[in-house]
Input
Amino acid sequence: MKHFTVLLFLGVGSSLLAFDSGLPLDLNQTLPIVSQLTREKKGWDFSISATFNEYIAIQDSMEIAFPGEVPIGNIVVLDYAYKPGFEVGFVFNTPFEGWNICGEYLWFRGTSQVTKPANGTVPYTSPILIEPFDIAIGSIESQWRLGMDIIDLYLSRSYYSGKHLSLSPFLGLRNTWIRDHFELKASKFVAASNIDRATTTSRAAGIGPRIGFQGNFLLSQRWTLFGNLATSFLYTNYNTLKLNYLNYLGEQSNLENDGAKTFRSILESGIGLCWESRGPHKISVNVAYNLAVFFSQNMERTLVALARSTQVPPGDLYLSGVSIGASVVF
Output
């Protein structure tokens, strides 16, 4: 999915660039970018935007259980669901050779869960549980909660202006706060009232450079096809990284790696359609499909693998969905 969206965007962009014929670039002209209106005034112009998102978060290495003592049948996984979120932003269009000062804040909270009753005469086995907590499982309840706050501050400047196509590269700083909590409740196959629990928790803060470009293809005076492609490379500190086991007897085991530090990369892309009004205070409305891949975000499963005396690479986190937004120029 992540490769398809990026390749689709690059293919469309290449075709549009080949179709478009270039015109001399006026450095005092600010070209339209994603979530921003086409500007005609010169000087310190200001616009704000607000976007409603309907996103789904999916993470690798989230297998919960399988029937039998060896992997057979259908693996039990979370029922991922779309959840609402929002994004707000601003753009200062400066009079200095077309430079723009931009900022965005993304808020998202997601919850996914699954419940499985006892599977007849065949118990479940979970790759998450370890001795002495790896019981023959009768029924399963599991939940995954995800919280994301992302702030972007960047500079953008028009680079290419054609009859229909315009491109604006940007460079800036990204700051992320990602919280992740997973819980598994497993009842014993022979005694349903006896429940073992496994929980993982992580809180990660990242900061680093972000680079990319935004582009527009003018379809008519009011309709524009837009898209973006960006990547960021973040120094990430897992302030909290914990694994806890608790059985029905009150016995528990903990494994922690608080303060783990590493580098993480993010790849994101989007494509959509924008409509602009005409008048002194322009208003635009846009709809888009967006995809972001947070590489190696799932560090909790590395703790599970370590508890089982094995090693696995961290899984990726995917955030994708549809957004509907509006911008106003003052």
